[in-house]
Amino acid sequence: MMWPSLLEVFGRLADHRRREAQLYPLPGLLAVVFLALVSNVNTLRQMAKWSRAKRELSGRLGFRRGRMPGYSTLRDTLVGLDVGELEEALSNLMSAVGVECLDPPGLRGVAMDGKTLRGSDGEEGPLRLLSAVAHGSKWVLAEEAIAPGASEQSAVPEMIEKLSLEGYVVTLDALHTNTSVAEAVTKKGAIICCA
User: Fold this and answer.
1) Residues 6+ apart with CB under 8 A from 78
2) Cβ-based neighbours of 115, under 8 Å, separated by 6 or more
3) Could you say which DSSP state residue 90 is in?
4) Tens of pLDDT along 160-194?
5) Residues 47-82: pLDDT tens digits?
6) Cβ(51)–Cβ(74) under 8 Å?
7) Are strands 140-145 and 108-116 parallel, antiparallel or unpaired?
8) How many H helices and E strands in the chain?
């Protein structure tokens, strides 16, 4: 199977930067961030240092030979990104890669669970996220913020609708043991397990 390149995946995102701020093409910048993250480089300053140490990648990422982005470029680019658009691009990448080739043989599972981010208290309360994670590979297939004042239960049906679940066992907290969730999961060709 031929997987799409990171430049193809990130090339679908709109570049909202001012023309003079486009020294580095957006797909290449996002590929730097992606590659740094999978290399266990987690802060923007570390990413800038990692980037400078990987100058041999500059041409392949669409940058001028030997030029790699620094901290300010990475920060300014990420701050201006449309998060929903980026999530969709990454979700499409995961679909193209095929989670089934990342999971062990046998039953394939997807866990859906909501979590409150520690230290995220704001005016509208703490940030709560609903995630769908592949059991074997532990890849996050989808993740969405739960609207302030809304329940995790209201966010689950929307996430189920967005995911391709045929042939999967979908695991959820017992809180989701209800007919509408069961019907939504089975309608997608999956098996539901609430515990």
Assistant:
1) 33, 44
2) 128, 129, 131
3) H
4) 988 888 888 999 988 888 888 899 999 988 888 88
5) 999 999 999 999 999 998 788 999 999 998 888 888
6) yes
7) unpaired
8) 7, 5
Question: Rounded to whole angstroms, how far apart are CA atoms 67 and 58?
Answer: 6
pTM over 0.70: no
CB 28 within 8 A of CB 59: no
Confidence band, pLDDT 50/70/90 cuts, at residue 100: very low
- List helix spans (H) across the chain: 6-11, 26-38, 44-53, 71-79, 83-97, 152-162, 179-187
Q: How far apart are CA 158 and CA 124, in angstroms?
A: 22
- CA 185 to CA 162: how far, in whole Å? 11
By the 10 Å C-beta count (0-12 exposed, 13-18 middle, 19+ buried), 7 is classed as middle
Q: Tell me: the pLDDT tens digits for 6-17?
A: 899 899 898 888
* 25: DSSP letter: -
| Cβ–Cβ under 8 Å, residues 37 and 110 | no
